[in-house]
Amino acid sequence: MSERQPIAILSAGVVTAVGLSLAETAASARARLVRLREIAWRDRRFEPFIVGSVPDDGLPPLADALASRGLQYRETRMLRLAQVALEDALGTPEDLASLGIDLEHPLPLLLGLPEQHTTQALDPARFVQRLALQAGLPLDIKASAAVPRGRAAAVMALRTAAARLARGDCRYVLVGGVDSLVDLYVLGTLDMEGRVRTEVNSDGMSPGEGAGFLLLCTAQAVQERGLQPLAWLQGAAAGQEAGHLYAEEEYLGEGLAGAFATLLAESPPASPIGCVYASFNGERYWAREYGVARLRNAEAFDPEHAVEHPAECFGDLGAAHGAVLLALAAEGVAAGYRRSPCLVFAASDHADRAAALITQAPA
After folding, report:
1. Using one digit for the tens of pLDDT, what is the confidence trace for 129-155?
2. How many domains does the chain have?
3. Does residue 26 sit within a domain?
4. What's the pLDDT score for residue 245?
5. Are 179 and 78 within 8 A, CB to CB?
6. Are both 185 and 82 inside the same structural domain?
7. Per-residue pLDDT tens over the stretch 169-219
8. For position 2, what pLDDT does the model report?
9. Strands 301-308 and 273-277, sheet pairing
10. Residue 4: partners with Cβ closer than 8 Å, 6 or more residues away
């Protein structure tokens, strides 16, 4: 991607603990509405976990075609979450038909899945197939890919999506992420690692769940079809942090700083960055990492830039986090309450780091 080839974000959809749509989540996050609650499951100190969970009555039931397959609780939850966010992003079958998306012209999906596994890891390819059944969508299964890369996965996928669109491989690409950390095994594992925020552990996260999706196309498609994009993606870049949370190597801050540097070199913003959407989750590690990346690329930022970290409202969304941040940033710059250009970054628990630049209009 480069500044001369912006990609249109046609639409986006989200589900989180503070909203069953992008509009609801964005309004709640803007108002700093926090919806974290105690649940029946208890931590190793026999205190109830405090999580950001989506109300069950806001989710559709599991599709009949999947109900008899003995799916894990977490996978079932993720499929239901994803359906809500997909419907928010894509609208009705008639809306899809107006874009020429149907069984003959299905959508490729690039999907981020969890790094943190429960008792049995999800099968990425099978999950995409099941998601197509659950949501009743014309997904191009062969052209789709799902990767267990955590928070950064959806932001990382933007480069692949842009390359496919630029080559003419497809007319549209769907990018997203879905996860639920509200799983007893995952919660127990994070708790044993000392990563869950409690009354006695301030350096921790509030586990959450959610999903986010963005529908992308080229500027040429926008012009030819007379479309009205939500916002524009000017560029995206990725990096690798050798000294990540689970590594033995020393932390040096190279991964995120490198992703920022690559992004800003390939797609230099027309004006200083006015807003940052960060995948902070309450753990101090991530703020320190951003500080390093920000200092090493200081000339690109407005000294008064805002930093948004909506996990304080809905918890850590795991593999959904990057996609939800992208959607919130697009909504914010489109509505004018977040300054453009807006930098979005997401850092996974392991090595992956990624950043993207979103603007209100094409450069």
Report:
1. 999 999 999 999 999 999 999 999 999
2. 2
3. yes
4. 87
5. yes
6. yes
7. 999 999 999 999 999 999 999 999 999 999 889 999 999 999 999 999 999
8. 43
9. parallel
10. 363
Residue 216, strand partner residues: 9, 173
**Residue 311 belongs to domain spanning:** 231-359
Tokens 């690559």 -> residue: 262
Copy the structure tokens of residue 152.
Answer: 């950064």
210 and 259 inside one domain: no
Three-state SS sequence of 45-70:
CCCEEEEECCCHHHCCCCCHHHHCCC
Among 323, 296, 223, 258, residue whose Cα is nearest residue 14: 323
CB contact burial 201-228 (16+ within 10 A = b; e otherwise)? eeebbbbbbbbbbbbbbbbebbeeeeee
Helices 22-30 and 321-335 sit at what angle, rounded to 10 degrees?
A: 80
For residue 1, tell me if it sits in a domain.
Answer: no
Which residues lie across from 238 on neighbouring strands?
A: 354
Q: What is the CATH number of the domain that holds 308?
A: 3.40.47.10
pTM above 0.85, yes or no: yes
Q: Are 107 and 139 in contact (CB under 8 A)?
A: yes
Same domain, 81 and 102: yes
CB 323 within 8 A of CB 211: yes
Residue 178 domain-assigned (yes or no): yes
Structure tokens at 2: 């480069």
Structure confidence at residue 212 (pLDDT): 98
Question: Which of the listed residues 183, 205, 225 is the one where a domain comes to its end?
Answer: 225
DSSP state of 138: -
Radius of gyration (C-alpha) of the chain in whole angstroms? 19
Domain end marker among 197, 225, 253: 225
